[in-house]
Amino acid sequence: MTDTEYKEMLFSDPDKALEGYELSEEEASALKELENEHFDATAVELEERVSRAGLGIVGDTLPRRG
């Protein structure tokens, strides 16, 4: 699955997209409330925060699904 396909699933079927992730209810709710037009900016901001924290790139930490 590509990042684009995952993004489409996140907005069309968020429960399925978030399946398998250990998220708090608050985290899952925040992701489900994201608006498609704000997703890319939010993802870039999150990636920058994670990189500054020395945790690697967000895309590298997401599991790939078949």
What features would you describe in this structure?
It contains five helices and no strands. The longest helix has 17 residues, at about 35-50. By secondary structure, the chain is an all-alpha fold. About 70% of the residues lie in helices and about 0% in strands. It has one domain. It starts with a helix and ends in a 5-residue tail after the last helix. The model has no long low-confidence stretch (mean pLDDT about 80).
Q: Would you kindly provide a brief summary of this structure?
A:
The longest helix has 17 residues, at 36-52.
Largest sheet: none
Q: pLDDT average, as an integer? A: 80
Which segments are poorly predicted (pLDDT under 50) over 5 or more consecutive residues?
none
State the order of secondary-structure elements, H for helix, E for strand: HHHHH
Q: What are the defining features of this structure?
A:
5 helices; mainly alpha; 66 residues
